[in-house]
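Teaching assistant here, posting this on the class forum so everyone can see the example we discussed in section. The complex has two components, and the goal was to see what a joint structure prediction looks like when all of them are supplied at once.
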Amino acid sequence: MNLRPSPTHTSRSGGCTLTGALSITTQVRDTASIIHGPKGCAHHNFSLFHATLLENEQTDLPDLVTSALSESDIIFGGEDALAGSIRTVCGRDVLAVFVLSTCIVATIGDDVEAVCDRHWPVPVIPVPTAGFLGGTFQDGVNNALIALADCTEPCSPGLCVNIIGEKNLEYEVEENYAEVVRLLTMLGLPVGIRFVHHLSLNDIPALGTAQLNILRDPSLVPVGDHLRQRFGTPYIPSFPTGFSDTLAFIGSVAMACSVDAERALGIEQAFQAEILADFADIGDSHGVFYGPDLDPENSKAAREAADALHIRVSGDGDAHLLPVHPVVGTSGVRRMLHRWRRAIHA
Amino acid sequence: MTGAAACLAGFDGMSVVIHGSSGCYYYPTTLLHAPLHGTFILENEVIFGSEDRLREVISGLINTGNRIAVITTCVPAILGEDIQSMLAEHDVLLVDSPGFSGDVETGYHKALSLLAPQTDAGVDGVNIDGVCLLDPFCRGNVQEIRRLLGMASIPVATVFCRDALQKTCAAATCTIGTNSDFSSSIGEYLGGTLGFATLRATFEKLGTAFEGSEIDPVLKELSKQEEETVRICDKFLRRFDPPSAVIFAGASYAEFAAQVLEHYLDADIRFIGLRNADRPSRYPSKQVTGLKEAKMVIETNNPDLVLGSSFERSVSGSRAFYGITPPLRGVVRLAPVPLAGINGTLFFMEGVLNTCMDNSRLHT
């Protein structure tokens, strides 16, 4: 019997659960996150979040603490170091403490949950991570969102729409949020909480009050399912990614919330026509798509825009390199078209 | 691990493999801006062994003609696999440098010692050391010291660690430094290049060591620029009080900054928070590696000016800030700015004076 299944079909570049989970827990204000592992893991993530937050004009740094495991902790066990870190952090002005474990801790077998279950003055919430041994970056995101959702109780739904699982490390996170808010506002729907983006722990009980959840992308479907099971809230699986998808998104949200979509659809179609007219100067050109995120959704949105402008897309001859990045809504396509104009006129 | 990668990835002709998960690989890759390879191991390989995966990655590199270095991360380091034996048929440099074994300098020095550089009395010129890809000033430092050595007609031998790999086998017998936190201990050390006084002393020694050298143009430029620095600092002091400063940096850069600020601006150096291990200093100093501690140091000492990384900038409040320590996030950096050499001190003083004056205007 073959006990070594080939990992050929498993992605090796899924990233670290720790980073994914931290991208969520560090967005909860008034809390601290403890990384149970060597200090290098904390430095790595802190540096990454620091850079990202600065780019998004968030100047307050996350409260990130490391248990700073040394070689002797690796040999004799790191639970005492973790308990010491929790004790120190509980002495601060925090409402809760998240504990995230690393791959080395999973390998040496520290019982993290048992340490978290001891009596502490504030809630100490273990988030299933275990570095790369716990899955991928996205698994870390999903596990952290589910762990946070489980901290709050079901309640009566209201009229608002919650935004679930924004990519907090994304360069355009605020612009993408603003685009979804614009679309919801056209439908007359108020936005509830951003679960989780720069949120207070005290805001999380509002999670169950939404009439609809909008997930950032389909990789969050396990979270959407969990929230539907726990709070009964239906969900839309993704932000819209192009012209036609934006119109479909308006229709889906309107149907889920029982509101009329006709006016919003009319405004959006006129907006899209205006954009195409603005970019008529790059029409009838010839280009080829490139970029690090050429997934089917992004490619579809790009292809649709190219077709609408009669841009011939093929790699032959003197094709311009047309950059493709993950776009959200109609405004996202417009930003991509500005990059195309720059490339074509370069 | 990151320190070891910063050392080895600086050499052309070296393929560096991070033996660990994708998450461990991304960190040095994004920080060093150098091509690195990774085994991207999965749980499967932790349970059943990583030999096949390591061989798969190595076999993709053996035809490049480069020497291969494998750096272990935390989990592979404790699995107990005999990686050296696994790769016995290849000339692989194995650096067992997991994150829990120490800091950046530890990894850097370990990797360099395993490379075992050799000096060769037949090689003309002087080595430059202290160059580490993690250092935001490393490109500028190399460029500036090469410029000054060129002015003095002294050939550059090997740059540790940013050079062709084969040049580590035949380094010159004397070395000058740019950042002593990353010193190489290769050849006779003739001195550093941080600050005018140190630079002058080092070039005087170089003038003695190299018969055909012409250090006068360097000393002349040095004197001229020092005079200009004195003039500008004097003008600043006619209008503003000397800054009181707290510095967060590695020992080498921290000592340089403190001495220069004190010498030219009569600054009050209230505290040095060392990034690396404690080192004797005539200024009050101790190792500070946590942000809470850094914030406390700043609040306790209440300086006008903070030097450090963008971490310290975030807890400096409305104080003047100048970045000399990685990471320097939130700013665009394109040009190779030095801290070493003549231009290094000029860039440093220019930055400090501008930030102090801007800050002073904001508060009046």
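For the discussion questions: The two ends of chain A are 59 Å apart (CA to CA). Residues 161-239 of chain A form a domain with the Rossmann fold fold (CATH 3.40.50.1980). Think about how each of these relates to the inputs above.
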